[in-house]
Write a structure and sequence with these properties.
The protein is an alpha/beta fold and 355 residues long. It has helices at residues 11-24, 71-82, 103-107, 134-143, 150-167, 169-177, 196-208, 241-250, 274-277, 295-311, 317-330, 335-354, and strands at 28-37, 43-51, 58-63, 93-99, 214-227, 230-234, 254-255, 282-291. The longest helix has 20 residues, at 335-354.
């Protein structure tokens, strides 16, 4: 089925389209202002659109832009769903669409937030020291060099390839992507404490999920896996009750915990702490990951973005070039890509609403 939506050109446009669709659908809408400003100087916010009884025991939570730039596809899917006929929404279920958990990253076309923090490395237990990743320090200067000339890109890339050959490619990928907490300008930085979006999510859930007894979460992502393929990723291992529930609901589900999912095992993802967001509810969750380009292209885009915000000028000529590179790594403007995403998304969300 053709997607009713194409990707918006910016966060500001995506937000306007989402809010217009929510209004037309008769959804309840809340605006939660973010303290930062957008790339175009616009206001930023987490917008929450809801359909169904506010006191429903069954809640389906759909989140976009955990990784900012990935909100281009997530927002289009959320907006398209709001434009669906009302008859597609079963009675008795509360559907909650969280638009842009990381609005700053969405607007600035970054995967990370205003603190260069990857939200899915920030949900660790901050009452304890953060996880150690000493091997990352060895390569931090190569991943994000001070200069981003073509010569420096080639030199650092060759050195990283040599290190990958020495330690093994899979081990190298794990070291880079699992999360690190000592290099604030590096990639996959987890922060030094709970960031704004982390605190907002905990506060919102505590205030709004009291009546919930069964919570189903779909966290929308892009950038990993084959082009247009929507992989459902569970944070728990196969054979555990949460994984069994996800499998019963959606069929084939991979796992970050046992290595069957695209990407390496990581520390501090928010779905791993979802049971603490609604401790009185049975939680079934999945990250719906849509593939775009090859992993090397994605990695180079992340390196370029980290360099730009650590050593470059985000508002200068290089800024626009890097943002184009980052967007291309996480969002494909080809209609066929969104068509593939739409079919998968409607199947996944439809199953969650009908459980």
């Amino acid at each position: 089925m053709a997607s009713p939506r194409r990707l918006a050109p910016s966060y500001a446009r995506a937000r306007l389209e989402l809010l217009a669709a929510a209004d037309a659908a008769g959804a309840r809408v809340e605006h939660h202002p973010h303290p930062g400003r957008g790339l175009e100087g616009e206001d930023l916010a987490v917008d929450v659109a809801e359909l169904g009884p506010v006191d429903a025991a069954d809640v389906v939570l759909v989140v976009s832009a955990t990784h900012g730039v990935e909100g281009f596809c997530g927002s289009a899917l959320q907006t398209g769903w709001l434009e669906h006929p009302a008859s597609a929404r079963p009675d008795g279920v509360r559907l909650v669409l969280v638009h842009a958990l990381n609005p700053y990253g969405f607007s600035w076309v970054r995967r990370v937030n205003e603190d260069n923090v990857d939200l899915n490395r920030n949900f660790v237990d901050w009452t304890r020291p953060p996880p150690d990743n000493a091997e990352y320090d060895r390569i931090a200067h190569l991943l994000v060099p001070e200069s981003w000339t073509l010569e420096e890109q080639e030199r650092t890339s060759l050195e990283l390839l040599a290190i990958a050959e020495d330690m093994g490619l899979e081990r190298m990928q794990e070291v880079v992507s699992r999360g690190q907490y000592r290099q604030p300008t590096g990639v996959f930085y987890g922060g030094s404490g709970p960031v704004w979006s982390n605190r907002w999510l905990h506060t919102w859930c505590a205030a709004n999920l009291e009546a919930c007894r069964r919570l189903t979460i779909i966290d929308l992502h892009s950038g990993l896996g084959p082009w247009g393929h929507g992989e459902l990723i569970c944070v728990e291992s196969a054979g555990t009750p949460p994984h069994d529930r996800a499998s019963a609901l959606w069929g084939e589900v991979t796992s970050m915990a046992d290595g069957s999912a695209a990407g390496a095992t990581l520390d501090g993802d928010w779905l791993s702490s979802a049971h603490r967001l609604a401790p009185h509810a049975e939680v079934t969750s999945g990250a719906l990951e849509f593939g775009t380009v090859d992993p090397v292209t994605v990695a180079q885009a992340l390196r370029a973005d980290a360099w730009l915000h650590a050593h470059g000028d985000p508002l200068g000529p290089a800024g626009a070039e890097v943002r184009t590179q980052v967007r291309g790594a996480f969002a494909d403007d080809a209609p066929a890509w969104m068509d593939a995403l739409w079919d998968r998304f409607t199947d996944v969300l439809g199953a969650a609403l009908a459980r």
